[in-house]
Specification:
The complex is a heterodimer. By secondary structure, chain A is mainly beta. Chain A has strands at about 5, 10-15, 20-25, 30-40, 45-50, 55-60, 65-75, 75-80, 90-95, 105, 110-115. In chain B, the strands form two sheets. In chain B, strands 2, 4, 5, 9, 10 and 11 form a six-stranded mixed beta sheet that branches. Chain B has a five-stranded antiparallel beta sheet with strand order 1-3-8-7-6, with no helix packed on it. Classes of the chains: A mainly beta, B mainly beta.
Chain lengths: ~120, ~110
């Protein structure tokens, strides 16, 4: 099946620093990737849709200047949490699909802890 | 809210029993998917059911879909301790929206 990877798997940073998370589709190309955030014991919340070669589409309430998304190639999307604060501590997961509208494959997630 | 409703929120059963989880979604769909998530890990795709399907089976999994009620159910038969996890339904043509999830505990 299709494989999506994320890097890093976990990161601890100081408040005020920026953190970049990578999402890669390993065996397929994806014009669209999706970024989710999950707080403990809660469900996944869609943050934004990452579009290759164009601007990301953000969900209501998600600050685009704080969560920068770059989708520079058909196999790589990056999410940068800028000026991270403790409330940004969460589990960030990306997904992609080889075929639009079909099964979404999820990365293993990145756990961010901001001190 | 992005989330639909999922019930029960938590379910605890003995090994060998069946587990049923229900999901309500909010919009019209082309398909609905079920995922499993072990604690603190990524999501594993279980099954996809299309809007023109009413029931689908995969091993010990049985999924039903009622588009008139905007609801779906996941049945796990003959449960095992290894089935302990959170289960989510998700819908959307590309950008997936997730139900609140059911935390299943299967006691050995």
């Amino acid at each position: 099946g299709a494989v999506v990877s994320q890097h890093p798997s976990w990161v601890i940073c100081k408040s005020g620093t920026s953190v970049k998370i990578e999402c890669r589709s390993l065996d397929f190309q994806a014009t669209t990737m999706f970024w989710y955030r999950q707080f403990p014991k809660q469900s996944l919340m869609l943050m934004a849709t990452s579009n290759e070669g164009s601007k990301a589409t953000y969900e209501q309430g998600v600050e685009k200047d704080k969560f920068l998304i770059n989708h520079a190639s058909l196999t790589l999307s990056t999410l940068t949490v800028t000026s991270a604060h403790p409330e940004d501590s969460s589990f960030y997961i990306c997904s992609a699909s080889p075929l639009a509208g079909e099964t979404q494959y999820f990365g293993p997630g990145t756990r961010l802890l901001v001190l | 809210s992005q989330q639909g409703e999922e019930d029960p929120q938590a379910l605890s059963i003995q090994e060998g029993e069946n587990a049923t989880m229900n999901c309500s979604y909010k919009t019209s769909i082309n398909n609905l998917q079920w995922y499993r998530q072990n604690s603190g890990r990524g999501l594993v795709h279980l099954i996809l059911i299309r809007s023109n399907e009413r029931e689908k089976h995969s091993g010990r999994l049985r999924v039903t879909l009622d588009t008139s009620k905007k609801s779906s159910s996941l049945l796990i038969t003959a449960s095992r301790a290894a089935d302990t996890a959170s289960y989510f339904c998700a819908w959307g043509n590309n950008d997936m929206r997730f139900g609140a999830g059911t935390r299943l505990t299967v006691k050995p």
